[in-house]
Amino acid sequence: MLTQVAQGVLVHRSELLRNNTVVVRGRTGVLLVDAGITGAEMSCLANDLGELGLPVVAGFSTHPDWDHVLWHPGLGDAPRHGTARCAAALRDLRSDDGWRARVTEGLPPEIADEVPLDLFGLVTGLPAGTVRIPWDGPDVWVIEHPAHSPGHAALLVEDSGVLVAGDMLSDVFVPMLDDFTDTNDPVEEYLAGLRVLEDVADDVAVLVPGHGSAVAGTENVRDRIGRDRAYLHALRDGRRPDDPRIDAAEPGWEWVSGIHEGQAAGLARWNEGHL
After folding, report:
1. Which of left, alpha, beta for 212 (phi over 0: left; psi -120 to 50: alpha)?
2. Are 237 and 209 in contact (CB under 8 A)?
3. Which residues 6+ apart lie within 8 Å of 51 measured at CB?
4. Which residues in the chain belong to E strands, given as ranges?
5. 3 state SS of 211
6. DSSP per residue, 16-41
7. How far apart are CA 145 and CA 225, in angstroms?
């Protein structure tokens, strides 16, 4: 179940949404990024790591979406990190007595009974401005940016040049925008996030998105940035994007076009309110 994508970096994939859990080897154990989505998958991951003699010594959630903040008892009780904004969003969610029901309502029905929520969202925020994961392993740089959701951050593993991109730069999902409100412009925020990732592209040997396929090489990273930027420009300009993730999706992923249609409608309503 674990696939090596670079020296010292392994990936474990969840099939339903093609979530990628990333494992970075350190001196005394591993850093586990976005642990997985079903109990069985996370238990399998824990067993695989146990067989390799690799305890989990730190965790990280790239952002506060449900499928990136889950955990399993078999993974141990290592500190689980996120950005300060990510942790604050999760703390606000869990402060509501009905949080569990709200989260359950948003789960894919195919796996709703298989997602363990007891350890959901128990993420400790790193101090604002933290740029490195605090752990006994290779330098892993925190690249926070204003795109997709509050407190979203990519990670760059310095030794291997692996960019763990969270819900950015996917080959199966179009860019998914943050909520439209009176105080933000999600399209411009996403474009700003792409610029932040573009600034480190020359240092990237392997890109691992939160969903979809990993790719190697700076040129492929820049291609994905360019494709997402083109999608956003078309969306902003009211044009139909020329994007294979919408028009030529592989079987079973046709529903991604619905994400686009919803975003186009939401942007149109938001623009009407800002005329």
Report:
1. left
2. no
3. none
4. 2-6, 9-14, 19-25, 30-33, 56-60, 80-82, 124-125, 140-144, 153-157, 162-164, 206-208, 215-216
5. strand
6. TTTEEEEEEE-SSSEEEES--SSHHH
7. 14
Closest CA to 227 of 243, 213, 208, 238: 243
- How far apart CA 233 and CA 153 sit, in angstroms, is 22
User: Which amino acid is residue 6, in one-letter code?
Assistant: A
Residue 21 has pLDDT above 60, yes or no: yes
Query: How buried is residue 216: exposed, middle or buried, by Cβ count under 10 Å (0-12/13-18/19+)?
Result: middle
- Average confidence (pLDDT) over 188-199: 98
Compute the Cα dihedral for 165, 159, 206, 196 and give only its sign.
positive
**How many residues are given for the chain?**
275
CA dist 142 and 189 (Å) reads 18
Given a contact cutoff of 8 angstroms between Cβ atoms, the answer to whether 200 and 221 are in contact is: no
Q: What is the pLDDT of residues 138-187, one digit of tens each?
A: 999 999 999 999 999 999 999 999 999 999 999 999 999 999 988 889 99
pLDDT (tens digit, 9 = 90+) per residue, 36-79?
Answer: 999 999 999 999 999 999 999 999 999 999 999 999 999 999 99
Distance CA 203, CA 272 (A): 41
Candidates 205, 241, 221; CA nearest to 171 is 221
- Cα 189 from Cα 38, distance rounded (Å): 31
Q: What is the C-alpha to C-alpha distance for residues 66 and 73, in angstroms, rounded to an integer?
A: 17
* Continuous segment of H or E residues that includes residue 268: helix 256-273
pLDDT above 70 coverage of the chain, percent: 99
